[in-house]
Batch of 2 targets.
Target 1
Amino acid sequence: NAGVTQTPKFQVLKTGQSMTLQCAQDMNHNSMYWYRQDPGMGLRLIYYSASEGTTDKGEVPNGYNVSRLNKREFSLRLESAAPSQTSVYFCASSPLAGDYNEQFFGPGTRLTVL
Amino acid sequence: EDQVTQSPEALRLQEGESSSLNCSYTVSGLRGLFWYRQDPGKGPEFLFTLYSAGEEKEKERLKATLTKKESFLHITAPKPEDSATYLCASPPRSAGGTSYGKLTFGQGTILTVHP
């Protein structure tokens, strides 16, 4: 049982390049989330998917798109990377999209945009 | 605006020196308070969910408590392996009655326990 896995672990992009961050969970969870973590800013929600087939914006969605490919996988795409998107990105999953359901996090992707 | 504020930003303790971390929130109609532990270079690891004021939960040397305005994470006789960043989080207020699992995180307290 791997839990939440993310690929790649590290990535360096040039301004304007695009890339997709991959996330998969094997816990049969319904809900999945993408966060970014920046020094002094804490974890901020980018997008979430309450259930398969649905996605919605979080606190900081600009410059990102997501795809809930199936129940297991939730990808985050940067269409035209900017230096402001340099951050650590975490994917998380939860059994249900409820107020009291804990989220389980992946190991993160460390992205640098030059 | 919903806010979750943690203090102190950093805390250095000697092994065995007990202390507490604070998490205060301005979210009205609190619907759960979560504590996570994050080790350097890793994702947050779930510790506790507190559902209502007055509730307490324990795990090894950690004890989390919740009042109407704040939560405390008490660390009793800490060991060097307790060194980590501790995060608290709460669902933001929602007009629809549920936050759909969205969380507002505090900035964390960096705990260092020296042997």
Target 2
Amino acid sequence: GAVVSQHPSWVICKSGTSVKIECRSLDFQATTMFWYRQFPKQSLMLMATSNEGSKATYEQGVEKDKFLINHASLTLSTLTVTSAHPEDSSFYICSARKRQPYSNQPQHFGDGTRLSIL
Amino acid sequence: SQQGEEDPQALSIQEGENATMNCSYKTSINNLQWYRQNSGRGLVHLILIRSNEREKHSGRLRVTLDTSKKSSSLLITASRAADTASYFCATVRNSGGSNYKLTFGKGTLLTVNP
């Protein structure tokens, strides 16, 4: 168990377009989901922590108006990149963690979304 | 800032050989986790070791943790070409509340040649 589905896997769109990425936990309830960004051959950088039913917590330097996160249910979180520009091109990955106990729980990752802005 | 730092950054070995990757971190941790990432894919959880544990095994994987040196190692025995991937260590600090964020190292790119 513990499958996380991320959709779409690849997006190519024009500059100025808003893009929505979905992250679903398929076989478990996830109180908390995380959104990461990864540049080529680099590590994952946490962008924000998404908690069901409350506002997301953004990491320092991440523009909350640029990257809108909604966690409306225990199985779905969405990341919307608003008015995307070429510098937003990257690999975005979500992860989800099962409910309590919070400590000593691995995170379960989606397969990522490759976003290319022309 | 990156909590974990893996070395080497890249490792190339022959099938059947063992691969050892190291990870160092800076602050006290709740646990340390190792993940694997195939090119262009998401991460797969491999093993979690708690701060009060020193060694853990899972199949061909062996992880050690030395909290006095703030370091961990991942050993893959009898490697296979399918083990080719990037391997990341990630630490969990008790940041309070229920978030327990993961902080990833830069990763080691392992290439296993047939």
